[in-house]
Amino acid sequence: MSNFVKVTQAVSEQKSQLRLVVSTFCLLLALLVLAGCASKPEPRIDYARDVNFAQYQTFGFFTNPETNTEEYQSLLTDHFKSALRREMEALGYRYQAEGAQLLLNFASMTEDKTDIRTSPFRANVGFGRFGHRSAWHLGFPIYQSDIETVHYKQGTVRVDLVDAAQNRLIWQGVQEGRLTREALRNPKQAVDETVALIFQRFPTRQ
After folding, report:
1. Secondary structure (DSSP) of the chain
2. How far, in Å, are 78, 114, 128, 154, 173 from residue 40 at the CA level?
């Protein structure tokens, strides 16, 4: 067998091994993405099962929601009112500044959290030379666990819906999640997205 044929066969083997490595890597990446999506927190919803939410026509806001300061109305309050009004009107309710049948209250808080993570497995892809042959290899060596401490801020948003005549809480939605840099840079968009997520599970939409 000529040297040219040997080289051609070696290149062909390397290409086949490379395709296998790439396919395996893509599969691992897809599984990681799916796992990340599955772990995304969903809003916690509770409501009065004996209430017919279709009986109400109008809604308004509590005069001093928890997002306000003692001296003035905050920008965060404006963001919440805008997002909540959009969601309520999309459900068919009508805004009424005074004497509304439903009153909305809302709160937002942040909390410092710490996660301790361990990483016992590492996957590596490389190109190695063994004697006169070169080949791609995919390995899963087990090393001593790496311990990583991650500090972050967690945000919590709570929305209360109250029957004004009975002064009774009839629906509540709570959403928790890690505060990203983008959310801190653009709080209005973060509030819009969070409120929309909570209202996806409003009783009249189920």
Report:
1. --HHHHHHHHHHHHHHHHHHHHHHHHHHHHHHHHHHHHTPPPPEEEE-TT--GGG--EEEE-SS-TTS-SSS--HHHHHHHHHHHHHHHHTT-EE-SSS-SEEEEEEEEEEEEEEEEEEEE--EEEEEEETTEEEEEEE--EEEEEEEEEEEEEEEEEEEEEETTTTEEEEEEEEEEEPPHHHHH-HHHHHHHHHHHHHTT-GGG-
2. 27, 18, 39, 13, 16
Q: 11-70, pLDDT tens digit by residue?
A: 456 555 545 444 444 433 333 333 333 445 789 999 999 999 999 999 999 998 888 877
Give CA–CA dist 87/93, Å, rounded. Answer: 9
Cα–Cα dist 78/90, whole Å: 18
3-state DSSP assignment of residue 126: strand
Residues with Cβ within 8 Å of 185's Cβ and at least 6 positions away in sequence, in order, are: none
| CB neighbourhood size of 193 (10 A) | 15
Task: Give Cβ neighbours of residue 111 (< 8 Å, ≥ 6 apart).
Answer: 153, 154, 155, 156
Q: Which two tokens stand for residue 177?
A: 């999640």
- pTM of the model as a whole: 0.62
Cβ 179 vs Cβ 154: under 8 Å: yes
Q: What is the rounded end-to-end Cα distance, in angstroms, of the chain?
A: 72
